[in-house]
Amino acid sequence: xxxxxxxxxxxxxxxxxxxxxxxxxxxxxxxxxxxxxxxxxxxxxxxxxxxxxxxxxxxxxxxxxxxxxxxxxxxxxxxxxxxxxxxxxxxxxxxxxxxxxxxxxxxxxxxxxxxxxxxxxxxxxxxxxxxxxxxxxxxxxxxxxxxxxxxxxxxxxxxxxxxxxxxxxxxxxxxxxxxxxxxxxxxxxxxxxxxxxxxxxxxxxxxxxxxxxxxxxxxxxxxxxxxxxxxxxxxxxxxxxxxxxxxxxxxxxxxxxxxxxxxxxxxxxxxxxxxxxxxxxxxxxxxxxxxxxxxxxxxxxxxxxxxxxxxxxxxxxxxxxxxxxxxxxxxxxxxxxxxxxxxxxxxxxxxxxxxxxxxxxxxxxxxxxxxxxxxxxxxxxxxxxxxxxxxxxxxxxxxxxxxxxxxxxxxxxxxxxxxxxxxxxxxxxxxxxxxxxxxxxxxxxxxxxxxxxxxxxxxxxxxxxxxx
Length: 468
Ligand code: GLU
Fold this sequence. Notes:
Layout: E1 5-8, H1 18-33, E2 37-42, H2 52-64, E3 71-75, H3 80-92, E4 96-99, H4 103-115, E5 138-141, E6 148-153, E7 157-162, E8 170-172, H5 180-190, E9 195-199, H6 206-215, E10 222-226, E11 229-230, H7 246-252, H8 256-264, H9 278-284, E12 295-296, H10 299-312, H11 315-328, H12 339-348, H13 355-366, H14 374-380, H15 386-397, H16 404-417, H17 422-434, H18 442-449, H19 451-467
Parallel strand pairs: 1-2, 2-3, 9-10, 11-12
Antiparallel strand pairs: 4-5, 5-8, 6-7
Bound molecules: glutamic acid (GLU).
């Protein structure tokens, strides 16, 4: 067993989105690659904004992506005694101190600093007061005033932070709840985290966290800050770009393997390879190949990848997966292993880009009444085609069974007889059977629908032509 240990520590204040899912994937892959451990931790110290609903949905999204954790989930809200203990230690060693400055005074000083063009930071009013605990008092970390802390980032290299840029930041709030900076360090320390892989929006927190580790006499983990994800227009990724919660992608009919493959390529590359199986990802993933510049979210590429994985997927499995999507369209499938149903899945598999599309493309097989797309009906269900359709019905009625070859001969013969191109016979029948002008192969459809349904639908089209 390797000693590598990574973590994914979401705040349960919202659903899991693309950025968080990528962070989870990178941490999971890094741990798997090294035969290490991946843990899940909920940073839920913000009691107002943290919700059980989000804990559940984040877990559900990780499970859907098959990013299973080996340890946890831990909850910071259940570890308050641990943070208090470490805070006491820092206090006793003079590395932290109580501060009684009121929020109003601090706010006033902050405004003044901004007005004078200075960077606002705590001015050290209480630093040497030697205060004890008391109502409204926070605990501050005594930051070194001179020197620099260098973050040896595994992606971007060394980044130096001048201590004059930092201030004595708060580690414990008056109610005994730790701040993010403190809780994250105590957790990473006590949980034995070796590598922290997270978004580069956290880079400026890292020197503070390293200083806390040092103050506690511990070695900090290694840090890797991943550049952010941009929207297709180059601005920071947001809902505006259609970047929704991971579970929304599931509900739109994306496959988890497509999503994982898409996410791994968001900022990581291996030559120009685009398709990675899970095993390959684990084998090839490393931090050195993470790009130093931001990745761009491209929904079309995600869609194309999903289409690829649908084509790759086992038909039996796809059949099971598409059932709930058909149910949403009012089609109930009792046995997804039914041979006809599998054939129907097979017929749309090469074309569907999502399971939702797949269900839409398949719906016509199962409805009692076909509704025609207006344009399709107008163009193809015209009086002059009625005699041809009547002949088709007659011929089909005389066929003992549907066979592709016999059907093709019939259609060709009729086209010739009426001096029409094959497609001029096929398209009206397609519209009669599916309501649309685009569908799987006509003879394939006829075989799946079966003789009785085919004849019924063509007769209905004939009635429609008469009426109009
Ligand atoms: N809870 C933090 C977040 O969701 C975790 C940051 C970290 O990885 O340290 O951004």
